[in-house]
Structure of Malate dehydrogenase:
Amino acid sequence: SKKPVRVAVTGAAGQIGYALLFRIASGEMLGKDQPVILQLLEVPVEKAQEALKGVMMELDDCAFPLLAGMEAHSDPMTAFKDTDYALLVGARPRGPGMERADLLAANAQIFTAQGKALNAVASRNVKVLVVGNPANTNAYIAMKSAPDLPAKNFTAMLRLDHNRALSQIAAKTGKPVASIQKLAVWGNHSPTMYADYRFATIDGASVKDMINDQVWNAETFLPTVGKRGAAIIAARGVSSAASAANAAIDHMRDWALGTNGGWVTMGVPSKGEYGIPKEVMFGYPVTCANGEYSIVEGLPIDAFSQECINKTLAELQGEQDGVKHLL
Ligand code: NAX
């Protein structure tokens, strides 16, 4: 049987954590033959640590055959020790009256500390996924704070946007969601993301031709996907958690186990692809094989798409500029 791998999860007592940990421990992320050791991080506050203990009691009570160990931590320097996978979910939410600059600064502090801790103690091959918002910028901060780790090991979660777009296209075309190939989402995990179905196919046929409605694309599809998080909050009273956890599972599973040529979306540091400045943590279409992702290159970008990409890039660069002095 396989040797256990170490999976660190931050914000482990939060609502995404509650929807995520049981699925990791059951083998849905890394395979039904891969034992895992969970290294769980929460803030050093009694209430959070108590809540974490409760979640761990429930994990125990599942008697998961693949759960080879479990640890509670309040310090990233111990939580990230030798970790092979790190899911950075915990972040500082925007409080009432909090300015954007304050939000960026509070998160910069968290992700600088966590990036340094990963740099110091994690496995040299650690795969990092940042879920906590602003996800792309937080991932950028963690990457910049970990100069001894490969930059490519730091990623941000765009998969929820990708999955939301798949489900809207399935509903529009009346086709099964699993039949949709080659969807791309570009840019920031925010309402400015650009979900792009120009290359998408269903059973070999062009989705763009099937829909053939640029007004629907610009005025219904993109706003629906972009504002989906707000629509969930309005309906449920709390933000999306199960779908976010599901997207995190999808992202890590595909990165680790591969996509068999299929396209998925990951936020990854640019090396200049599609004219995006180097190091910007940008949503790109990727394929994954042998534990590595590769950006799908050479796609034509038309005027409408370029405008959308410019807009989400400008937002990301604004965020990045807003934290530069803190790094
Ligand atoms: P919760 O507030 O339920 O849980 C967050 C948990 O993180 C709390 O238990 C908190 O104590 C902990 N935490 C905060 N700072 C920490 C730190 N420095 N170290 C360790 N733990 C820390 O939020 P939840 O609904 O679980 O959402 C978590 C994050 O995901 C938020 O930032 C949210 O905005 C973000 N999201 C990102 C998505 C994406 O697609 N990238 C979608 C879903 C979600 O909105």
